[in-house]
């Protein structure tokens, strides 16, 4: 049974799953899908061509799938927004649709987007991602599974935040952050391995040690990055986690948020 408040507006072409709750003053547009057991508490706007998974909890004044703010957006362009299952989306969060015809913004499963965080057009957000209060994610950003973005952080368009990485609060990120690392600063630089984040995500102590050793090889021995990555591929060829880091280096288009000299002292005390 679907519970729709009498003050909500639900388009007849919206597909609402079983046991959904649509609270007062919600507006749900055409060609939308909302999975079973999802709750829209009140004042939630779901724009056309938006799909929301099951068991989501969406708080007041959230806007989902609304038109891209990209100035290149052409009126009447059809774009999409896909949001997975079991996501918690808190007050005043905005997740925008894609810009180009047929493009989309995607969010995975089991994420938590805290109040006033923003995901721009054409972003790809993985599973179990946390965006803290007032995080601003620019267009075409990719955020890997288990990543954690601290409050008031700003991520420049086209940047990539790797799997199980962390961006500290109030950081200004203009380049890519490798998987399993922590970046902080203004502008942000990678500082150390995200040991706690990896533990929480279920990585073994041996895996964490491999990643730490690879990070030191890549950035703390004074080697050219090309030389360091070649050495790391030979030394850690059996490690899928280190290979993930090396693949991220090889495919980076924005460049890396490389550690500063002060990072050496941090890691020596680690």
SSE topology sketch:
Elements: E1 3-4, E2 9-10, E3 15-16, E4 21-22, E5 27-28, E6 33-34, E7 39-40, E8 45-46, E9 50-52, E10 57-58, E11 63-66, E12 80-83, E13 88-89, E14 94-96, E15 104-107, E16 112-113, E17 118-119, E18 124-125, E19 130-131, E20 136-137, E21 142-143, E22 148-149, E23 154-155, E24 160-161, E25 166-167, E26 172-173, E27 181-185, E28 188-193, H1 195-200, H2 205-219, H3 225-235, H4 240-251, H5 262-268
Parallel strand pairs: 1-4, 2-5, 3-6, 4-7, 5-8, 6-9, 7-10, 8-11, 9-12, 10-13, 11-14, 12-15, 13-16, 14-17, 15-18, 16-19, 17-20, 18-21, 19-22, 20-23, 21-24, 22-25, 23-26, 25-27
Antiparallel strand pairs: 27-28
Could you walk me through the main structural features you see in this protein, from its secondary elements to its overall organization?
This protein has 270 residues and is of the alpha/beta class. The chain has two domains: 3-140, Hexapeptide repeat proteins (UDP N-Acetylglucosamine Acyltransferase, domain 1), CATH 2.160.10.10; 200-268, Udp N-acetylglucosamine O-acyltransferase, C-terminal domain (Udp N-acetylglucosamine O-acyltransferase, Domain 2), CATH 1.20.1180.10. The protein is 19% helix and 26% strand. It contains five helices and 28 strands. It has helices at residues 195-200, 205-219, 225-235, 240-251, 262-268, and strands spanning 3-4, 9-10, 15-16, 21-22, 27-28, 33-34, 39-40, 45-46, 50-52, 57-58, 63-66, 80-83, 88-89, 94-96, 104-107, 112-113, 118-119, 124-125, 130-131, 136-137, 142-143, 148-149, 154-155, 160-161, 166-167, 172-173, 181-185, 188-193. An eleven-stranded mixed β-sheet has the order 1-4-7-10-13-16-19-22-25-27-28. A nine-stranded parallel β-sheet has the order 2-5-8-11-14-17-20-23-26, with no helix packed on it. It has an eight-stranded parallel β-sheet with strand order 3-6-9-12-15-18-21-24, with no helix packed on it. A hairpin with a 2-residue loop joins strand 27 and strand 28. The longest helix has 15 residues, at 205-219. The radius of gyration is 20 Å and the shape is elongated.
